[in-house]
Design a protein that fits this description.
alpha/beta; Rossmann fold; two-stranded antiparallel sheet; 12 strands; binds adenosine-5'-triphosphate; binds magnesium ion
Length: 192
């Protein structure tokens, strides 16, 4: 199967999960991430709002906020085409829908984070493999934004968040794909 066929198949499966399975997986994701002392030690964490059936990190968001951590969300960069910016998210954030219909903090008002200095970035994904390769939705947004991971210097941990069924034996890794540090699912934390 090629990448676009794989995306279609897994995205369909993801969207068809029952509410019950979604909720139980969201609780599982929280308990998986809580087992990682590196993740829990971070003070500035980028999450995402669940879309297209993605495993939902909302409980993780609430948990981090209760611990006094700062949560950031990806926002389509209005000037740098194909790039994301990370903006602080709190219950008072002014939100708007981007061109994909995904809710994001308003670029004009929130506090911007330099992605290099985030502790962790949690990335949604369509599929992952046992080597930490990630298949996203196909826009290349995270790959472009996280290109600095190839350079020396400070870097965040990149944690792919997914359901167990999104694991495939092997994914084609493209030259521009940024490999993940770890994958957190409802059942396990895998480091690469
Ligand atoms: N660093 C980059 N510089 C230029 N183009 C890039 C870069 N990274 C990705 N792209 C372009 O983006 C397109 C989509 O990339 P890819 O198929 O890896 O998306 P994805 O990882 O599934 O998406 P996303 O990162 O948004 O979840 C590619 O065809 C590639 O040309
Ligand atoms: Mg990619």
């Amino acid at each position: 199967m090629n990448k676009s066929e794989l995306r279609k198949l897994i995205r369909n499966k993801r969207r068809n999960l029952s509410l019950r399975r979604r909720q139980s997986a969201a609780r599982g994701l929280l308990s998986t991430l809580r087992q990682s002392s590196q993740f829990m030690a971070g003070k500035r964490v980028a999450l995402y709002l669940s879309n297209d059936g993605e495993i939902d990190p909302q409980l993780v968001c609430d948990d981090l906020e209760q611990r006094g951590k700062q949560v950031f969300l990806p926002v389509l960069h209005p000037l740098r085409k194909g790039h994301l910016s990370f903006i602080r998210y709190t219950r008072n954030s002014r939100m708007k829908r981007n061109r994909y219909g995904i809710s994001e903090p308003d670029f004009r008002f929130g506090q911007h984070a330099n992605a290099r200095y985030l502790s962790s970035v949690c990335l949604p994904l369509v599929a992952f493999d046992q080597r930490g390769n990630r298949l996203g939705m196909g826009g290349g947004y995270y790959d472009r934004t996280l290109e600095f991971m190839h350079q020396p210097g400070h870097k965040p941990a990149l944690i792919g968040c997914a359901y167990e069924f999104q694991q495939l034996p092997q994914l084609p890794a493209e030259a521009w794909d940024i490999p993940l540090t770890a994958i957190a699912t409802e059942a396990a934390f895998r480091r690469f």
